[in-house]
Specification:
It is a multi-pass membrane protein. It comes from Poecilia formosa. Its EC number is 3.6.1.68. It is a single chain. With about 280 residues, the protein is an all-alpha fold. About 70% of the residues lie in helices and about 0% in strands.
């Protein structure tokens, strides 16, 4: 049997004494795992400990787990999805560019003297000169000066205006696009300018298409001559690819642009009255 001193000591310390009634009651009740009040007060006064306990709480852990799961479950943003899934237009343009480069290289059979069709290179260069701007400008100005009729002068004046318009528009597009000429091109062209180092569009193709359409519309030509005009337009465009001067798309776009220039000349057509006024100013 314990002594009264032991009982009193156990009561003063707050710890149960084995075999006592207090010890029996504490075993029959659920254990209280909370810290003593003086420890809770000490932990609450320490801000670092409070933050650590708050971060380690079950609700905090559950919240962080759910947020992590939701973040990992989210798909990529819309712009990332667009970036990872290129559009059909982009794929089509890339495929068209690859085909254009491949076909242009395969067709450049007159790019060098030792190429497969190198013997035809002088003929292709002669056709190239026939579509140059300088011969056409000189020929239109001379024909307008030598023409005896007002109608002939009017036609040649509008052709001259179309040629000047072609030089301006083609130079502007080349300066904006800045597409390099094919790598196998030899820079031995006739009377080139700084903008001629660019390839898109083909100035020879635009000029041939515009002049050919203009001549067929305003000159009375027999059927064989009309066929020759169309054949010349096609040969000028073909020579640009065979010589390695341009890509295929440069020539095709040049034909379309030349036709549009012809339509623009028809809209801006100078009438005989305007022609007489211009001649009066020049005189």
């Amino acid at each position: 049997m314990p002594s009264p001193k032991a009982k009193n000591a156990g009561r003063r310390d707050g710890s149960p004494v084995l075999g006592s009634n207090f010890d029996f009651v504490s075993l029959t009740k659920p254990l209280n795992r909370s810290s003593p009040p003086h420890l809770l007060q000490r932990q609450g006064s320490d801000p670092t400990t409070a933050r650590l306990r708050a971060s380690e709480s079950p609700s905090r852990r559950r919240g962080s787990g759910s947020s992590t799961g939701s973040a990992s479950g989210q798909g990529p943003p819309e712009e990332d999805g667009i970036r990872l899934n290129p559009s059909l237009i982009g794929i089509s343009l890339s495929s068209l560019l690859a085909i254009d480069l491949w076909l242009s290289k395969r067709l450049s059979v007159c790019a060098f003297e030792d190429a497969s069709w190198g013997s035809a290179r002088p003929l292709m260069k002669l056709i190239e000169v026939s579509g140059h701007g300088i011969p056409w400008l000189a020929g239109a100005a001379y024909s307008m000066y030598k023409s005896d009729s007002a109608a002939g002068q009017e036609v040649m004046l509008n052709l001259l205006m179309g040629l000047l318009l072609d030089i301006i528009l083609v130079g502007a597009v080349k300066a904006v696009v800045r597409r390099r000429r094919p790598a196998h091109n030899q820079m031995d062209m006739f009377a080139t300018f700084s903008v001629d180092r660019y390839s898109f569009p083909s100035g020879h193709a635009t000029r041939a298409a515009m002049c050919g359409r203009f001549l067929l519309a305003h000159l009375v030509l027999a059927a064989p001559l009309r066929v020759l005009v169309l054949l010349w337009v096609g040969l000028v465009g073909l020579s640009r690819v065979l010589l390695g001067r341009h890509h295929v798309t440069d020539v095709l776009f040049g034909f379309w642009m030349g036709y549009c220039q012809y339509k623009l000349v028809e809209i801006l057509w100078l009438s005989p009255q305007t022609l007489q006024g211009l001649l009066g100013l020049l005189a």
